[in-house]
Specification:
Helix 13 runs parallel beside helix 16 and helix 13 (268-294) runs antiparallel to helix 17 (361-393). This protein is 54% helix and 13% strand. It has helices spanning 12-20, 58-67, 71-90, 104-108, 111-121, 136-141, 143-155, 172-177, 187-192, 197-212, 225-234, 250-258, 268-294, 316-321, 332-335, 338-357, 361-393; strands at residues 24-33, 39-49, 55-56, 97-101, 130-135, 159-165, 182-185, 216-219, 238-239. It has 2 domains: 12-265, TIM Barrel (Alpha-Beta Barrel); 269-393. The chain is globular, with a radius of gyration of 23 Å. By secondary structure, the protein is an alpha/beta fold. An 8-stranded mixed β-barrel has the order 1-2-4-5-6-7-8-9, surrounded by 4 helices.
């Protein structure tokens, strides 16, 4: 495979000519599920196949394209290419998703949502086949306009991924308002986590936060088996990087998918995250009880966290258990989680109703005691499941 090389910066005129000659092409870097080991999609990355048979990195020409006012037309052209790629990939892997990065002006001008809406209404692609990536810095710099555009894309069923998370100092408040489906951990943080405990803790915190916000965690820049294994242990859900594969032309990516490769995987990190989810759930219920007691029966609407009952099964641990966690149903300890987990959710929902309705505080104490008992049962079985999964990895 020919790898990207750098040369002197081209002019805007040269870039415009390259666009006319279709010399700008998309390469595809596979994304792998750390929970199943399967390829789940790819990120589309632009390259320039120049007349001298060199493959040029975007860092060589994108700044000049932006300065020359070419970025919008380039994005539209490349988006058309990615949509065509989605159609080709669908023939061998209908569940895969391809993602493309978009520029700030394309978001603020509504060009992207309008064009994608045309693709969808025309039946060219299905919403699950295309994803949009935007960098964290773009979100923070143009929050209000970007929020409206992302809401439009989300309403179409298009998943939006925050790229380079960890570099833009985004606030939790703003992050929680955005309709993101995934956080992509910055490759710099991922690469340094094997040598820096501070960066490792940053990755752990980001994975946990993504889970609590109902987002997928994706690690970029994974270049070694050590990084890959740490990500599995933390409960990170997807990864991409040179350890898995370098970006490649579409035909090579399709061949890569057809090979049906299976990468190392485990849900042991998700099980550990589920333990914390149980503890956080119990803490959320306790917070409601405390506020109820301090406020003489008055509870602010925000403290009765709607995410505790946002699905048929309630909180995050249950959403994992009744979702992808079901792949672990062959473990006795996994199956033993179900009954106390359902009971825990029922008790939590009942406690919330009692607190809001102003029932006596003694009833709250009894309910919390039952919640503690069932929490302990769930956590105990999850610990047994962790041990079983660790034995599988040995």
């Amino acid at each position: 495979m020919t790898h990207p090389i750098h040369h002197d910066s081209p002019t805007a005129e040269q870039i415009a000519s390259a666009m006319e000659r279709d010399e700008l092409v998309m390469y595809y870097q596979p994304k792998v599920s750390l929970l199943t080991g399967n390829v789940v999609g790819a990120e589309a990355l632009v390259r320039w196949n120049d007349p001298h048979s060199r493959v040029l990195s975007p860092s060589v020409f994108l700044p000049q394209a932006e300065a020359g006012g070419l970025l919008h037309d380039m994005t539209v052209q490349l988006l058309d290419d990615v949509v065509a790629a989605c159609i080709n990939v669908r023939r061998c892997a209908p569940d895969l998703a391809l993602s493309i990065n978009v520029a700030p002006n394309d978001l603020t001008s509504h060009a992207i949502s309008s064009r994608i809406g045309s693709y969808l209404s025309g039946g060219s692609i299905q919403p699950h086949e295309l994803q949009i990536e935007i960098t964290e810095s773009i979100v923070m710099d143009k929050f209000d306009v970007v929020l409206a555009e992302l809401g439009e894309l989300s309403s179409m069923g298009i998943k939006v991924l925050m790229d380079d998370f960890g570099t833009g100092y985004s606030s939790i408040d703003r992050l929680s308002q955005m309709p993101f489906s995934a956080l992509k951990l910055d490759q710099g943080v991922v690469r340094r986590m094997t040598t820096s405990s501070q960066n490792l803790n940053t990755v752990r915190s980001a994975v946990a936060m993504a889970r609590e916000l109902g987002m997928t965690s994706i690690a970029e820049g994974v270049e070694s088996i050590e990084q890959y294994n740490i990500l599995i242990a933390t409960g990170c859900e997807e990864a991409q990087g040179f350890y898995i594969s370098r970006p490649m032309p579409l035909n090579q990516f399709i061949d890569f998918v057809k090979e049906d490769r299976h990468f190392p995987s485990s849900q042991i990190g998700c099980v550990h995250q589920a333990v914390f989810n149980i503890l956080r759930y119990r803490k959320s219920l306790l917070d409601i009880a405390v506020c109820h007691a301090l406020g003489s029966g008055s509870v602010a609407p925000s403290i009765t966290d709607t995410r505790l009952s946002s699905s048929d099964h309630g909180f995050r641990a249950a959403e994992w258990y009744f979702g992808i966690g079901q792949l672990l149903n062959y473990h006795e300890s996994f199956r033993a989680v179900e009954a106390p987990l359902i009971k825990l959710n029922e008790l939590g929902s009942a406690l919330q109703r009692e607190l809001v309705s102003g029932s006596p505080s003694r009833a709250h104490s009894d309910r919390l005691r039952d919640i503690d008992n069932y929490s302990s049962l769930v956590v105990s079985e999850l610990h047994r499941l962790e041990s079983a999964l660790l034995a599988e990895l040995a």
